[in-house]
């Protein structure tokens, strides 16, 4: 065999030995087996607890008042055309509800409006003096007034509402965050106001840090039978003379200060009530927790006042229908001389 052949044979033998050695080592490793992995504790993994606890929905909106028929004006602001008379009370009375588009602001107070009508009371929606008659004339025939858009009331209209309260008319202001200036003006006679900013709670809420729980803060006709309500966007309410009706939990924070505290979100004094949220009146929230009971209490509050009948325009609008036109004296004409 030549030297070249011997070299090739030696190389082949070396590669064969190396291959056999690698295979043998791999077989040995496999025979020793894969080391056991440590057990992992999974007790903390409970998918059923991943979602927040659901708030139970309430039932029907109760209103057991035997008050005689009242007329309630509900102000929702502009944003939709007014319409005609939509529905009648089912008890055969002649109380009626005036409404517009079902998709506009009036929809968001539908549960309150229908509760009043179904119990024999009249409801009239008011947008502004351009779409309707002046507010002073509207309130002259009303027993109560509700607004969910106080920022859209003019300064003159706010003064008229103050006079309406002084005359014994019931007023409920449902003020969302951002309405502090208008609420201060409306509630100045009773020292009632809302704080700037909004409330939030990161620790305890109804599926959103803005959806707060509130509980009764004392004896009030607005919270009778209420254990807990849900407010989707709330402002803090203050009062110098009135009674706090609802408060949040102590870990609620105010956006302008971020200070944790239990904040008042409702108050009332005499014939005036302020609630720092209007979302509880909407159909999708009306039956959340005890919101249905709160709405029923608001309806009861509105129809249980005693107006004096002394509120209204100082001077009648338009001519007196019974007045007679003044007698006209005949006009004497002089003859014209012909040329």
Automatic annotation (TrEMBL):
Pfam family name, one: DUF4350
Disordered as annotated region, ranges: 305-339
Biased amino acid composition, Acidic residues: 326-339
All copies of domain DUF4350, residue ranges: 133-292
Protein name: DUF4350 domain-containing protein
Source organism (scientific name): Natronorubrum bangense JCM 10635
